[in-house]
Amino acid sequence: MASTLPLAVTQKSKNETTNFTSVKTLSESPDFNNSIPSSYTFDNENEIVTDPDEVNDPIPVIDYSLLVNGNHDQRTKTVHDIGKACEEWGFFMLINHFVPKSVMEKMVDQVFAFFNLREEEKQEYAGKEVVADSIKYGTSFNVSGDKNLFWRDFIKIIVHPQFHSPDKPSGFRETSAEYSERTWKLGRELLKGISESLGLEANYIDRTMNLASGLQMLAANLYPPCPQPELAMGMPPHSDHGLLNLLIQNGVSGLQVLHNGKWINVSSTSNCFLVLVSDHLEIMSNGSYKSVVHRAAVSNGATRMSLATVIAPSLDTIVEPASELLDNESNPAAYVGMKHKDYIELQRSNQLYGKSVLNKVKI
Question: What is the pLDDT of residue 73?
Fold first, then answer.
């Protein structure tokens, strides 16, 4: 997690200087002159972005109901398909997951309601430079260290092993409690299938990653309309800490995943979770399953919101390759073991780009 010191973005207009503490307040300011501050500009590379319909190997779709309620043959095939998706993509769409659409929509509404609070109310949750604030509101990624700022505001909330919630807006606590409980169960069931796909017993990841006291975090990102989207970046290419990231969007696309050297737009699909393999699953599988590099593009026409649910080991768990998957000659350990909380600190203290953090623990 990054430090999130209050941001002072300077925008000059009519010989006056105004300071902003978030992208939202900047974009909504009457002094905003539709030219983004230089601190937000990037020299974006001309990378090819491919429409998913043009990809020969389409984005994998996993039917969760077949994993938990299917007959033997259906479940066996689903486990195989999950493993293939984790190996070849590090990413898949999850359908029929039993999280009610009404709960997902209510959670999205509550996240928007939080970002629509007065800036002074949100600043009560501005984070400090510690590994794991229970609630952290901020902007960009690491304001004290970012060379360029990202067109993004966020709130991160730890909801397991202890549940936390902002006091405002009204109803946020109740909605986030239900949503967190349902997604935590969903993530742990998915990890059982992933364990089996690696040839391990179903509860292997749950047990060795100490998920009974594991870390679950809600991370909501707001990307306001940007007048110069070709110059700005919502989030840079990166992979996530943790085991899995369960992502939903508000209907405005912007997520792009890297697959076979090309950036692919991932359309926002109603009532679907986008499941991203994260760094600790790559480490635990000794590289058999790859964490997916992804980024967030911004739009000049609409506000995008994404909500990620991070499913991760307990903070004190040393994450290392599973010994059952290793062979000293043909498949030696490819990663150094490290406590989860130390990995988060490593991420916080480094520039976020690609697999820059994961590469530091590769042997």
Answer: 97
